[in-house]
């Protein structure tokens, strides 16, 4: 039995915990205690945590987990990108099965997004230690750096470094919220740009990567299931649409003959939701950023810029949606007799999860009487970068009210532990194949 820790998060997690879920070496109390201890690093008074990538707090969170990894008997190292690699040798020297996530957060983020995946992967090792299980293949627990992107406004930094996906040009363009370059940030962290680039790994060393993550949605709640299967990870495409009209006095310019680009932008914005619906049930399109110039209450707007975020778990329909919205943007501009500049400035390849891996996850879910629920992930994950080179799988754990990136983010300890049991069973099955 772990020493009792008197704190609200710890007590809240254990309040309704079903102790019968403690079996096969897995401890709900250990997970609750560790989630609490991580919650104290970067704690903010308004609630939640603030642990930006490559910050002192992210580093401290990694150091704490590294201590737990070493106590569990893992060989622990850290690469030049700050990724923590903890390894347990198996009976053979075959490529390793790996699992993990991240410990950085958005500002005032929750306590489960990232840490749950790391602690779930580590708890598998703890369970093996307690039951005397020795895996046939090596097993790795990985903590990736700067997944959330709150440091550079561009996330998945650690997994991009590990896969060598970041070009020199992209590295040069990275500036953080203090306008520091990646090189300067790494120097403060205790690394170098040269070491960062050297973090590229021979991915033939890994057979499979599986990530546990909170759902950040409501499908599992709707299905009344604790754990679900990710069917694919959406790849975003960002389209910047600029409409250029003609500024004028709001009072003295007649309505007839105006070239009001904000009215045109509003028409485009209103039409966007119909396009994904007509395509399939996994495609989405969102406008979350709109810039109006000169943005005066009594001035007809001269220009408007909007950013359209387009996502799907399959590349072909995603690109089809991208093409349709670009044509719609041009059509609206022509109808309003204004100029347009349409530019695709981000296009990331989606990562579908292999059907065979989904079936194997379903097999593990069925062992615990969980009906498989298949969920596309609209958010990006480190598994997405690895999935371009090696097979990847993902499990979602139910999120209360679908809330994430928020201090109210919550997954019950029962659901978290059920996710660990499923992960453990899936990994042990993968060890045999």
From TrEMBL:
Residue numbers binding Zn(2+) 2: 113, 148, 405
Claim: Cell cycle is one of the keywords in the record: no
Required cofactor(s): Zn(2+)
Highest taxon of source: Bacteria
InterPro entries: Amidase_Cbmase (IPR010158), Bact_exopeptidase_dim_dom (IPR036264), Peptidase_M20 (IPR002933), Peptidase_M20_dimer (IPR011650)
Matches recorded under SUPFAM superfamilies: Bacterial exopeptidase dimerisation domain (SSF55031), Zn-dependent exopeptidases (SSF53187)
Annotated Peptidase M20 dimerisation domain residues: 234-334
Gene3D superfamilies: 3.30.70.360, Zn peptidases (3.40.630.10)
One GO MF term: metal ion binding
Pfam families recorded: M20_dimer, Peptidase_M20
Cofactor note: Binds 2 Zn(2+) ions per subunit.
The keyword Hydrolase is annotated on this UniProt entry: yes
Chain sites annotated for binding Zn(2+) 1: 102, 113, 213
The protein's name in its UniProt record: Allantoate amidohydrolase
Species of origin: Planococcus versutus
